[in-house]
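Q: Fold this one first, please.
A: Sequence and structure below.
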Amino acid sequence: MLSVMEVKKKLPKDFIENLYSLHSPLVADKILAGMATKRNTTLRVNTLKYNIQDLMRYFREINIKFERVDFYKDALIIKNATEKDIQKLDIYEKGYIYLQSLSSMVPPLVLGVKENEQVLDMAAAPGSKTTQISAMMNNTGHIVANELDKIRYERLKFNLENQGVTNTEVINGRGESLGNKYSESFDKVLLDTPCSGEGRFIAENAGTYRNWSKRTVKDLAKLQKKLIRSGYNALKPNGIMVYSTCTLNLKENENILSWALENLNLKMLDINLNIKGAIKGDNTNAFKEIEKAMKILPTKEMEGFFVAKLQKGK
């Protein structure tokens, strides 16, 4: 495992400078320490086909060691097997489980979907969160899952079918146009937006940060504003939106929320989920309520993530 000093040398210089301008040296060092090593394999049981008790029993039989997850009873951290090992198992092929980062499981839990609701997943591929939402709804209600990229759209359809999802309509279009197409149609909206992916950086894997730049962050922030407005327009009055990214900077997180609170009839809601080591959103801008957002710091178990829960006014 690399030291924090070694991680600093590998990651983009502008990213490191920005990280230390945003956080205390202690927190910034902690974030970099979380980027110094590969993450454990994590997964979720697909409750449409299987259950956690049978899964744990099966893993014990084949000597796969695991840990339960405090905040989600249907998730496991695998201690002695890689994703490739898990993909060879019959239960993976049959869609009984889904390989997914723990942080990625948080936005659907925060969204808190209920059976028979109307739900929009604005940037859905490859389907991690869509399949999780469907399972939480027991295949009731209706989900519209959108993906712009045609190849990822096909992958999304395959994963939904493999997991036994039957309550979801998959569409291939621009997220920015969904608000006009589905004006005030949904009880819940998930906007897990395209982002610069800083929370996924692994220092020894250059592919995780090769495409990062300040320009990319700036361009993505423009898109994120369009998407959050579109999601807002698609929400029914009093509806709930979760805005999430797998990145750590202000431009794509707190600044987007600040813009949304200023320009749209939205308010921040508390997140009633206890994630070890998570910190509050940075409220140094105009809106103190932004501290209700949650920033998950990268660790061996979790990717860095940002999650906010918003409600549309009447």
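Q: Good. Now the second chain.
A: Here it is, same layout.
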Amino acid sequence: MSNRNRVVIAGMGILAPNGIGIEPFWESLLAGRSGIGPITLFDASGLQSCIAGEVKGFDPLDYIEPELKATRMARHTQFAYAATMMALRDAELEITESNLPSPTPIVIGVSTSALDVIERVFRDSDTRGLEAIAPTALGASKPQAAANVVADRIGASAHAATVSSACPSGLDAVAIATDMIRSGAAELAIAGGADAPITKHGVASFIASGLTASRNGEPERASRPFDLSRESGVLSEGAAMFVLENLERAEARGTRIYIEMSGYGAQRDLDPDKPASGLRKSMEIALANARCTKDDIDYISAYGPGDPALDAAEVHFIKEVFGDRAYSIPVSSIKGVTGNPLAAAGPFQIAACALSIRDQLIPPTANYQIADPECDLDVVPRRPRKAKVNRALLNVRGLGGSASSLVVNRVFF
């Protein structure tokens, strides 16, 4: 363990409801400006909830080469590809054999897969017959499609893999890629998460499960993490992809380094009657793997989806892990701005933590107004906070009981 390679983020690409690109995403988080609004991707007028966090102003043809035929791809695949190309540019890398060594793992977390393509297949077959199904639909609807498209663009040196573990999928994908570099199996990897669940049947399913708020009249205030008046989370979409690199290689290239990946832990809920109970163990494992103590954590990026039970449960387990010190650690959730983009949630939080460490600023919990006695930590309400942030812990919890935690830090020499 003492000789393990150190792994850093050298490039980021972000497509989020609150902004495309690193700086627009970050500026909106600091301002608490929500990316949630009325659904425009389909006619949602007949649904109980007709709001979501859509990625606005996204034209796949602006990011994807014509020969790749972007319109045949699922929307989440378009996001993943675009975010990957943005991350490579940010890392000052070209798609060449010298810049992307063999093997280059491509690990992408996906939660809901290609709902838009699948719905189109059923719509076309119902209206025009089974012969109307496009021959490209099968490949486009596979969970592996996003990783395959990126790997095909990079070439024979790429190794593609898909992770699907509900909302933690993107964070888990980053952790898997990190371990490959740490062990020496790779020098550089591309990893992150993407999801595009905002389709008629996708949204209807979340409504039926009680997993999306219905503040249709004020969508920008619908996602309210830790607030006493919170109803539920708000469904959203997007992607965040990262270039992960061996620290020595990144230093030799002279590229910018955002953060170091230091510790990861995952645990399913220990008791079905205690939602989010897996977070206690996942946080403890992540801290142990990062070789740091509870006193070393300067900020906690909470999962905080705005769900009454899950927000309170996460606060409870943070207090169990950190004891009295939990009350002195800033804890905020970015989902008041981003909504819940499922597999992209963890990657959005990783990006936010990287930028917090870069700028020494903690993003606020947007829309927090009424204190909840069950969520009585310092949730950084209303405005960003200047603070010393050298090391951060982030949590993600998924439908079905999976929980993952990650510790990231400034690169210490």
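Q: Anything worth noting on the second one?
A: The first strand starts at residue 7 and ends at 16.
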